[in-house]
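Section 3.1: Structural characterization of target chains.
Under the original work plan, the team committed to producing a structural model for every single-chain target entering the pipeline before any wet-lab resources were allocated. The record below documents one such target. The sequence was received from the expression subgroup and is listed exactly as submitted; it comprises 143 residues.
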Amino acid sequence: MTKEEYIREIDEALAAGRSAMGALDEADGCLKSARNWGIFDILGGGMISSFIKHERLSRAQDLVQQAGKELQRFNKELSDIQMQNDVRIRCDGLTQAIDIFFDNVLVDVMVQSKIADLQRQMAVSKQQVQSTIERLEQMKRQA
């Protein structure tokens, strides 16, 4: 591989990494909104706050799936330059129907716990992507 080809492959990996980071950031924002609505729900928000919280969670779940696709593309681009990085994110279905139907503090706290778990996964994934982007930028400077 020529130097120009190598730099082009690094640029493609950087673009994929930045796209993945954007998708992760957007999903994280939705999760923060859902968590805030969840706190309101625990404090007595009722069915309307449960519905809004789950609308945010549904959107976040869609965004997490999109981020997963972006991460797959990022991993593929990294493999083109023989870099290993297997960043993934998993979003299990949350208990939307149960939470709305059985609107009580115990279920609300359980859903908040699942949101917090997903936020922790998101933070780890974002950190891994960011550190990989930084390594790629360093590789490009040294090429």
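Confidence is low (pLDDT under 50) at residues 97-101.
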